[in-house]
């Protein structure tokens, strides 16, 4: 028969460790996070002992395909087929299945015909290799993240051995210096990067302005960049992006990681009641009351009783309050303070 080589190639195996090697932040691995209906165990025997050569041809090329005669054992699987009415031999360039009998007392293993006893290898549990160096900082200012990785290759697990347990990636804070004041949050700047992009849709023009969407976002999606205009786009935010405006936690590899108000990962520092990072609540005092006069009185930059009113008003406006009533109450409190100091 004629020989016909096909260029298709197949992945040879799926190891139990393949699930573990999927990064936690990789969206393509989400299908591995659900609980299995029942626990399955892999057979210790090699697949060639269960699927004879004839069956391997049928699995590769369809029903009726048979092994071609006179082929070299183990190296490549050549099977019969039909092309333009003629019988041909074809291959997909992968070897006979491990464990397939080749000659008496020998089996195929990794494309070679070897003694059957040499395939009965002892299980080897994997161990972690050395940590690699930390990479570049994800941000040039405002608190970024550096990542370091290690691999389960010292040794690599073999013959059903256990995969390494523990962290494959570790991280640390970097570039904690404050960014130049632009009046915009880091998430806003990331959304703005998509302004003017041609999204190949008639519903959105290139002049659309993208802004962050904060409300209605589930906790698991807080590290996705969700921008809204007349539509919504889903992207992954840069490491070091705050998970939301009301938390100090930051995004690292698609997950919210605890951080302090000082921007450091795993820091316990919090803002006190006065808005001071790591403060003791002693730098301010609570003043309550009602003010019914027009808020035009707020236009001032004078120092009033140790509090710069204009700065406080700017903080209120820039904080992006979604509750109009809460913002009005804060303005009333500030104005009451101003009125009391002027009397």
Automatic annotation (TrEMBL):
Domain of life of the source: Eukaryota
Record: residues binding Ca(2+) 1: 31, 34
Keyword Isomerase: no
Location(s), subcellular: Secreted
A Pfam family of this chain: TSP_1
A cellular-component GO term for this protein: extracellular matrix
Domain ADAM cysteine-rich: 43-116
Principal localisation: secreted
Keywords (A to Z) from UniProt: Calcium, Disulfide bond, Glycoprotein, Hydrolase, Metal-binding, Secreted, Zinc
One GO BP: extracellular matrix organization
Disulphide-bonded residues: 57-79, 68-89, 74-108, 102-113, 137-174, 141-179, 152-164
GO molecular function, one term: metal ion binding
Residues holding Ca(2+) 2: 34
Stated name of the protein: A disintegrin and metalloproteinase with thrombospondin motifs 15-like
Native source species: Poecilia latipinna (sailfin molly)
């Amino acid at each position: 028969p004629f020989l016909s080589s096909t260029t298709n190639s197949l992945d040879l195996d799926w190891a139990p460790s393949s699930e573990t090697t999927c990064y936690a932040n990789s969206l393509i691995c989400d299908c591995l996070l659900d609980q299995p209906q029942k626990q399955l165990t892999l057979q210790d025997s090699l697949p060639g002992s269960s699927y004879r050569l004839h069956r391997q041809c049928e699995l590769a090329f369809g029903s009726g395909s048979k092994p071609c005669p006179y082929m070299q054992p183990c190296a490549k699987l050549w099977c019969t087929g039909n092309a333009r009415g003629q019988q041909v031999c074809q291959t997909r360039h992968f070897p006979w299945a491990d464990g397939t009998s080749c000659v008496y007392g020998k089996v195929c293993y990794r494309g070679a015909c070897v003694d059957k006893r040499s395939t009965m290898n002892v299980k080897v549990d994997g161990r972690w290799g050395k940590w690699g160096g930390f990479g570049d900082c994800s941000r040039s200012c405002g608190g970024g993240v550096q990542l370091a990785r290690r691999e389960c290759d010292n040794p690599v697990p073999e013959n059903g051995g256990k995969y390494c347990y523990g962290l494959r990636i570790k991280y640390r804070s970097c570039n904690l210096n404050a960014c130049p004041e632009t009046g915009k949050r880091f998430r806003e700047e990331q959304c703005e990067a998509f302004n003017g992009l041609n999204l190949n849709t008639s519903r959105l023009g290139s002049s659309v302005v993208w802004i962050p969407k904060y409300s209605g976002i589930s906790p698991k999606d807080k590290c996705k960049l969700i921008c809204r205009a007349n539509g919504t786009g889903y992207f992954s935010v840069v490491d070091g992006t705050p998970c939301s405006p009301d938390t100090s936690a930051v995004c690292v590899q698609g997950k919210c990681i605890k951080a302090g108000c000082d921007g450091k990962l795993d820091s316990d520092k919090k803002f006190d009641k006065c808005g001071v990072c790591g403060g003791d609540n002693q730098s301010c005092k609570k003043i309550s009351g009602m003010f019914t006069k027009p808020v035009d009185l707020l236009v001032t930059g004078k120092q009033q009783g140790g509090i710069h009113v204009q700065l406080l008003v700017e903080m209120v406006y820039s904080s992006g309050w979604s509750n109009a009533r809460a913002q009005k109450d804060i303005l009333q409190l500030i104005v009451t303070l101003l009125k009391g100091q002027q009397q």
